[in-house]
Amino acid sequence: MRLSRIEVSKLFGVFDHVIPLNLTDRITIIHGPNGYGKTAVLLMVQSVLGNRFARLRRVPFEKLILSLEDGRELSVTKEFPSKAEAEREEQSATLVFRLKMPGRDSEEFKLPFSPLREGLRIPLELIERHIEDLERVGHDTWLHVQTGRKLQLEDIIELYGEFLPIGPQQKRKIPAWLTQLPNEFDVRLIEAQRLLSFADTPKPRRAESFRFEPAVSSYSKELAAKIQEVQAQYGTFSQQLDSSFPMRAIQFKPAVSIDAAEVTRNLQELEGNRQRIIAAGLLAPQAQAAAIFGPQQTQTVEEPIKGILALLAQDIEKKLSVFDEITAKVELFKELVNKRFSYKQLDVRGETGFRFQTSTGLQLLPTDLSSGEQHELVLLYELLFKTKPNALILIDEPELSLHVAWQVQFLKDLARVIKLSSFDVLLATHSPQIIDTRWDLTVELKGPDA
Known about the structure:
The protein is α+β, with helices and mostly antiparallel strands. The protein has helices at residues 38-49, 54-57, 125-130, 153-160, 176-179, 181-184, 215-251, 260-279, 295-298, 303-320, 324-340, 371-385, 404-421, 432-435, and strands spanning 3-11, 15-20, 27-31, 63-68, 73-79, 94-100, 107-112, 134-136, 141-144, 149-152, 187-190, 196-198, 212-214, 344-349, 353-358, 363-364, 392-396, 424-429, 442-444.
């Protein structure tokens, strides 16, 4: 499912914004002066579609409307008790969710806000014990393992209160049409602060034992693990095919006569593909590559042998196919990084993740890079390796710490990544260099007097 339009009324009590999303180019850029709500809009979209409703309490607004590609319209309205305007408090607000569906009755759900922490008497470690899908990654932050969403205590109470021993006054039953939104919309926010991430360590039980590590280090380890996982799949698949090859070769009976030249071309193309996978750092070079018959040799081979070679080509193609997706991503990752970073080259390996080598042969860790290089590396990694097809990616200030030349190239490279992975982007920027010549993709956030 795709988001097609965003409307927000009285953001910060002042601004009314209408943002139609560009569904053709899959890139929409919002820009405007500081304080007009660019970051707030991104947070609100993530909060609603990602079921992180507690964040909405911290954003002053009256109404948010999200229009979906299939004709549905989801609105969120803040309602306050009947008091004088000056006595309004965000803590006493009620969020009213309404879902309008073509040809069907509307759904409505009211979620009152109250100070959830006040009077809360539950050891935080019980949350993981009662809810298996959650893993604690911060003092009061949990990771929803299946979706990768980070949830705070207020989010957990709202979503899972009925499963926790916290007393009936704090339990809220969220309707299915609302809780299923994260399954329909894979929403990811790439924030302006993106150089730190939670360290990948065993789950701690004391708040002071949580630590952060540079995102470039965390992502390097993560990429190494992804490569190792694909290598393991390749090994398992290869073992299965190799063990059954003799019996399949005996039973192999092609329907038509085999063209020896075509078999040769297939084997040569497959060898080229294998070399491409090796160059990407996903397979180790073999000491002795498999011999490839030339056309003049295969023409003289008897028909049963041609059949075995054809079967061999089919098996090689199946084995190498497990690398198709990650090879394309690693190749583009290396190309874009190496095009930007001066006097250094990115190297990717399953054992080490990514490392760099300078033009003089000096080996560099990702943490040795400049802050601008780290920002670019993290942003490209998240777009290529942490984004699912048809996701909605929200990017705040992609220009952060980037050289002007990199900013000008950003949209062109983003379009290539989108073409490879097929997702939508809504980004907020101050930079005309990021926009470059693509003002057709922009929506300006204006003040009330515009």
